[in-house]
Amino acid sequence: MKNTQTTKFKLKPIAQYLALGLIAATVTGCDLSTTDADKHNGVTEYLPEPEHNMAMPKAGQEQYSALRQQDTYWVNEQDQVVSLRGLNLGNWLMLETWMMNSGENPVGEGIHDQCSFEGKLVERFGDAETERLMDLYRSNYITDRDWDIMAEAGFNVIRLPFPYHIIEDENNPKTLRADAWEWLDLAIAEAKEREMYVILDLHGAQGSQGWEHHSGCEGKNEFWGGDQDNPDTALAAENQDRAKWLWQQVATRYKDEKAVAAYGVLNEPWGTDADTLAEVSIELYNAIREVDQDTIVVLPGHNSGTDSYGDLPAQGITNAALEMHFYPGIFGWGEIGYKVHRDWLTCGLFSDEGVCEWQDQLKKQHKVPFLIGEMQPWTGLGETGGAITRATFDKYNEMGWAATTWSYKVTTRDGGQGQGTWGLVTNKGDRLLAKADTWACAGWDSSFAEACGLGTKIVTPTDDDQTYHLVIKVGSGRWGAPDPYQVDLRLDDIQLIAQSTETNVLANSSFDSMDSWLEWSATNDSIDDDGLVAQVNTAEGSDNSALNFTVLPGTEFANGGVYQTVELKGGESYLLTGHFADMGSVNTWAEIYLLPAAPVNGQDVSGSAMPTIDLNNSSLEEIENYFSMQSTIEYDKNQWVIDALTEETAPKILDVPYRPVNLSLVEDEENNTIDLTWKAVDGAKYNVYRSAISGASYQLVAEGVETPYYTDTTKPEGVTGFYVVTATNATDESYYSKEVASAFTAFAIPGLIQAENFVHQEGMQLENSQDDGGGQNTGHANPGDILEYTVDVAEAGEYTVEFRVATEPGSQGFILRLGETDLTTVAVPATGGWQTWMTISTTVNITTTGEQSLVLEAVDDEWNLNWFRFTKN
To answer: What pLDDT, on the 0 to 100 scale, is given for residue 129?
Structure first.
């Protein structure tokens, strides 16, 4: 599993849609090379299923018995095709620290993988104490409640990532630990009790099977001998031999265990080439077969695919499956959203891409089942994520594929599902309910719902009846303001309303007095020593009393407020309402929290739903408490996903209408309007999209158009508009029509040209730029790829050309060509990062004038471009 939050990679085109576990799948957007008279007119067609004699019960209705391979299906002892749909138990036995918190250093600086995590504990506390602490963590991270949640959500298989040293004594190669089987036995027993299967996944092999942190030790790759160009073959042979030994121990123990669906021999082994991977994986298969002839062995695909395996049954390889990791919308594979999943699951515009392409390869070339060992179909999609997840599992299972999402559980400091995190469950959040401050909106006067810092929303704080505390926190610091500086905040009519009964659970919401409200100081052990003053008064000209905060003269810094204890019902949703106003303050804030613990004088409060630890500095007690609380934190479940998976009838989705055809454009240059027309689609409405870039970055300009024509009056002057149209029905949106464009705009030379404003490109990708001014930059170049622009040269002569570039390793760069003339070749020096920008320049001589084509042709990969500028010398 890849940490998307902290790692930035520059990928070669072979891996553009493969990034660390992705498939080489092209996401269809606008195909400019085809005609409107395509063979299906945008209608999805699926490959016919082959004839077979096996029963295919609905998912969840199969008999629970040992699994085997038959053709390209996972089949049980009753000859039923089993629809395996499950989850990964990431960050339990195999650690990935990004799953414990967001940010650069989730558990402390320099601690980013299993090796550094355990290494820091050993450094501070010794081997024996580290073993105890890791057992404490593991016994709390996944418990009975987690197994129950997974089973109740309809999952029937768990992919269990584990590191080799949970079984093998890392200090004594080929020696079992005394407690070698404790955790795998536990997982298998818990799964079996709930009639779930387990796929045992060697996530961290001896020496690490890749350079990435999720191989256990970042930057190691010694399973393959280290440096891929000059590997230590003896080291590689030793580690691979230990892996064979390990799998034989596993197979000996579990060969007769029906709950073990398969052995996944290596997770994401990106540290070698595809041919070497296939060769070693088959060696691991053969080692297992010396002990266990029946359990399915999962052979991992490379990030470039599975071609190296060939026809597996023809090689005598039986009861085997292949594995890939598919992440539509993530790691550079399109963008998170409905369309990327639609394209993937419905096989693209011409029904020969996406899942259909892979299914065709499995059946014709490999002839074994498929495991999608990792995917993430719901993150960032909100309610739609539930429908997409159900559609993904349904489609995969329809084709006989097994699939396990990454991941079951992810926690963060602030908690909450939001629009869907990477975890099916996460810790509850939403503790900061409303916020405003004088930096964001001095002089504010608004309801909590319209607060400029954070507007309140409906929250469900607890699963069980529990005591909470509604905390009003205000504060201010002088920080250069004259003394006395002004602080005057006013709050009134504060209610916390239970949504099922529409009743307010707070007392004295109107602040007739300070009854029911307790004062608290974040800066002092006693409220008497705090410079913050809370009092009830009535504003001039008003009959309503309110809570007012000021500070005493001479106060340098004040922080605190008032709170009220409330009894909340488990599963109940609440909405905070009220009003607050700044009456002319300086450097001042107002925040409202809902917290499970009462404020303590001398201690600040925050919206953090979980404490954080720093393994470099936290005390042993703090680390123990953090590990122990993993079993008691209240979960925020992705109910959209759970509901979609457990409903008898799947949500209606991917009912894709015809795409509009015969799109044409007429431009009125005088009035700067664009008239678009297209052939009508029965029963459809239409969305119109425009971009300043051909084939990418379309923005919606009109939605729900009821006629097959539209006039765009909003296109910026002097910019080429690229248009596509889609048809929509009650649930879905079609593929894009063919693209049409307004008259091409020629960029003036001398002048500046943004990289993304090309009229044509081949092989490049766009990404959001972190350079000054934002926008987008081009990247992912491969030799021979091009960027083409239309330019208008005002005057021949010598020009200085500046290029805004970024690259981590440096590159031989590109050729700059005007018309048929190569002006220069530009090498790109290392800038220190893919978003670390530098301006380089060169001098060229231009001999032609007027409108012509300007091309940048890559001679090397590894360079990003944001803009370039011509200046006449």
So the answer is: 98
Considering Cα of 9, then 15, then 20, then 25, what sign does the dihedral take?
positive
Give the relative orientation of helices 114-125 and 127-141 as an angle to the nearest 10 degrees.
Answer: 130
Strands 402-405 and 85-88: what pairing?
A: parallel
- Where does 664-741 sit in CATH, by number? 2.60.40.10
Whether 28 shows a pLDDT value over 50: the answer reads no
Distances (CA, A) of 791 to 478, 759, 804, 852, 854: 55, 10, 18, 6, 7
Best CATH choice for the domain 747-872 from the list 3.30.70.580, 2.60.120.260, 3.40.190.10, 1.25.40.10: 2.60.120.260
Q: Report which of 407, 390, 401 is spatially closest to residue 354, judged by C-alpha positions.
A: 401
Mean pLDDT, the chain, integer: 90
The pLDDT tens digits of the residues spanning 804-842 come to 999 988 999 999 999 999 999 999 999 988 999 999 999
In 758-871, alpha helices (H): none
DSSP code for 531: S
Sign of torsion over alpha carbons 57, 60, 63, 64: positive
Burial of 74 (0-12, 13-18, 19+ CB in 10 A): buried
For 285, the token pair is 């298969």
Residue carrying structure tokens 């650690």:
95
Cis peptide upstream of residue 328 (ω within 30 degrees of 0): no
**Is this model's pTM higher than 0.85 or not?**
no
Q: Please give the C-alpha separations between residue 425 and each of 151, 261, 639, 703, in angstroms, as whole numbers.
A: 13, 24, 9, 35
* Beta carbons of 774 and 768 less than 8 angstroms apart: yes
**13: confidence class by pLDDT, cuts 50, 70, 90:** very low
How far is it, in rounded angstroms, from Cα 506 to Cα 508?
7
CA distances from 641 to 328, 340, 377, 425 (A): 17, 18, 10, 10
Contact 270, 11 (CB under 8 A): no
Say what the pLDDT of residue 104 is.
85
Q: Which two tokens stand for residue 732?
A: 């879905």
Among 275, 265, 406, smallest CA distance to 323 is for 265
- 21 sits in the region (left: phi over 0; alpha: psi -120 to 50; else beta) called left
**How far from 847 is each of 796, 850, 853, 855, CA to CA, in Å?**
5, 11, 14, 16
What is the DSSP secondary-structure string of 538-566? E-TT-S-EEEEEEE-TT-SEEEEEEEEEE
CB 453 within 8 A of CB 646: no
Give the pLDDT of residue 610. 85
Neighbours of 535 (CB within 10 A): 11
Kindly report the CATH number that applies to the domain delimited by 13-29+54-405: 3.20.20.80
CA 49 to CA 70: how far, in whole Å? Answer: 14
Residue 480 pLDDT? 78
The amino acid occupying position 781 is A
Rg of the chain, C-alpha, whole Å:
31
C-alpha 429/C-alpha 424 separation (Å) is 14
CB 345 within 8 A of CB 654: yes
Cβ–Cβ under 8 Å, residues 460 and 189: no
- For 439-478, write each residue's pLDDT tens digit: 999 999 999 999 999 999 899 999 899 999 999 999 999 8
DSSP-assigned letter for residue 774: -
> What does DSSP assign to residue 302?
B
Question: Is the confidence at residue 20, as pLDDT, over 50?
Answer: no
Rounded Cα–Cα distance for residues 253 and 257 (Å) = 8
Could you give the 3-state DSSP secondary structure of residue 499?
Answer: coil
pLDDT tier at 540, thresholds 50, 70, 90 = low
For residue 188, what are its two tokens? 């298998």
Do residues 699 and 710 make contact, with C-beta atoms less than 8 angstroms apart? no
Q: Is a pLDDT exceeding 50 seen at residue 27?
A: no
pLDDT of 324-344, one tens digit each? 999 999 998 988 999 999 999
Instruction: Give the domain ranges of the chain.
Output: 13-29+54-405, 430-608, 664-741, 747-872
Among positive and negative, which fits the CA dihedral 93, 94, 95, 98? negative
